Fold this protein.
Amino acid sequence: MNPTQVWLAIALVLLLVELEVPIPTFFVAGALGVGAAIAAVVALVVPWTWAQVGLWLAASAGLTLWSRRFVPKDSPKLRDAEEAIVTLEIPAGGSGRVQYEGGSWRARCADPNLAIVPPQKVYVMERQGTTLVVMPAAADPWAEAG
């Protein structure tokens, strides 16, 4: 592979990561991906690897700082007992995925001894970075019996 192909592969992987990961990545992977695409174009005319890497770092840093204006300053707080649907099993003590507010989120159960299988409804108890802490709806002590 020539350097242009390597930079394009890096750009593709990083841009796909940006598309897959929810908003709390703050566009960093996307900025790195666009920087790699810029480095790929420059690699066509500049043969020095150190110059390509330097340009990638500078472009990525600039794009990351520029993208900050599009990131909300205060994340909206989760409302109490928001509902989500498990899409990938959450094993006991592990993490899986849930569908929450139109997006796929990494999630773990608040009780490390419980496993939750899809398509079970869960309540979002809190958010820790890009991970939601959930409890199964059946474990809700205030849930109606029946």
